[in-house]
Amino acid sequence: MTEVEIAAVKNPSITTEALAHLGEGLIAYVKPVRSEDVPGLFPQAPEIAPGLQLFALHAADGTPIMLTDSRETAIANAWSQELQAVSVH
Predict the structure, then answer these.
(1) Confidence grade of residue 88 (pLDDT, cut at 50, 70, 90)
(2) How would DSSP label each residue in 3-72?
(3) Which pTM value belongs to this model?
(4) How far apart are CA 66 and CA 84, in angstroms?
(5) Parallel, antiparallel, or unpaired for β 84-87 and 64-68?
């Protein structure tokens, strides 16, 4: 690598603002969540029994879109909104 290439790797040219909007309107992510974490993500959700494994669909910027008990349902919802779903562990 040249010095210029090394500098580009150390100091990427993408801004923080541009990074925040990366994938906006194109990508959503599915994340497993515990029912105990739901009030922080979805304050409007009804009370849910503790100890359940659920799945949250989020927009690329982290905005929660939906909550379900099925990973497949979260992915189908992303597709219905013309979003490419990716998994986050």
Answers:
(1) confident
(2) HHHHHHHHS-S--HHHHHTTTTTTEEEEEEEEGGGHHHH-TTSPP--TT-EEEEEEETTS-EEEEES-HH
(3) 0.71
(4) 15
(5) unpaired
